[in-house]
Input
Amino acid sequence: MYKSGIYIHVPFCHSKCIYCDFFSTRSDKADWDALVLALINELDCRIEEIGFNPDTLYIGGGTPSVMPQDSFLNLVCGVRELVKKEGDWSEFTIEVNPEDVDACKARIWKDAGVNRVSMGIQSLDDGELKAIRRNHDSSKAIESYHILRSMFRNVSVDLMFGLPGQTMESWISTVRRTLSLRPEHISAYSLMFEEKTPISILREAGKLSFPDEEECLSMWKILTNVLSENGYLPYEISNYAMPGYESIHNKRYWLGNPYLGIGPSAHSYDGKSVRRWNSANIKDYISFFNSSSDGISARGDVANTHFYEEECLDSVQLAEERIMLRLRMREGLDLSEFVSDFGEVALKILENNADSMIKEGKLVVDGGRLCLTPEGVMISDNVTVQLIT
Output
């Protein structure tokens, strides 16, 4: 039986980074008591969807580290009671930003059962941080890391390349300085220009300059080579870990395990064919799940209704999703498993679509698995599209 996990979306940040298109709003507008009650009520209504007790918990956002301490503790206690959790989670992650980290908060997270912290550093160049309007500088990022290191054995940091004004020299400096901290896990993402984000508007207006595609590819290669030389395994396109520190919760997304997403805009999957997603509306979310008159539980009031939309994937869509997700992973797509699940015809179509890209050096078949080559990784979206069309 596949193990499951719970994801809780906290849709508040101090301010919006100019590249971000995740659903969130300013934390000065937050009604924390109402949000926590709604999150617990939703979990109460939906816990049976995954059918068995989850063993990972991931609180993301937004920026969960902006939560007041009492609100965070109330949320975690509510989750534990509903899932009847005894003992430690296999993995309990909280996402944080450096400006929120202090010794008191870190102690509260640890005492609440958090055993993995993911911190968004993005860069250790102050000019780059200012350009993307982060609320911390490099010295605060390093200070916050050392606070977390003193309490947690599993710390992950996020980095970004392709940032405005970023050079090869500044990127190498960020990578080297990050490596000197020895986090157990590093996630590194290329800057994406999502529609209508401020950074996309600024680029279109010619007000910011960015590394070109070749420079971004070189930045990724440098990162991968340096981290590999220092013991980090590139187990997924954007994720590197010391042995034994791969993200359990996130890896299950890519393997197609079931998970339950709680909160405004959160997504869920039953591990078979049904995907669900909540509306991205905080006010409506809170109103819906706190609709009971006594404020204890919304189960009786909403038992015959729901706040999410859903889709049921057919076999073709499931096969396409399998290709997309497994190619992200270092192990790649197991072809024998693929043909067992989707049939000879689906395998033949895949092999035909992959043939030219294998010859071009973008894909390789190794040990019965279809994998991206280093040349294919930076254009993985294009490779995937060609495989499934």
Remarks:
- The first strand starts at residue 5 and ends at 10.
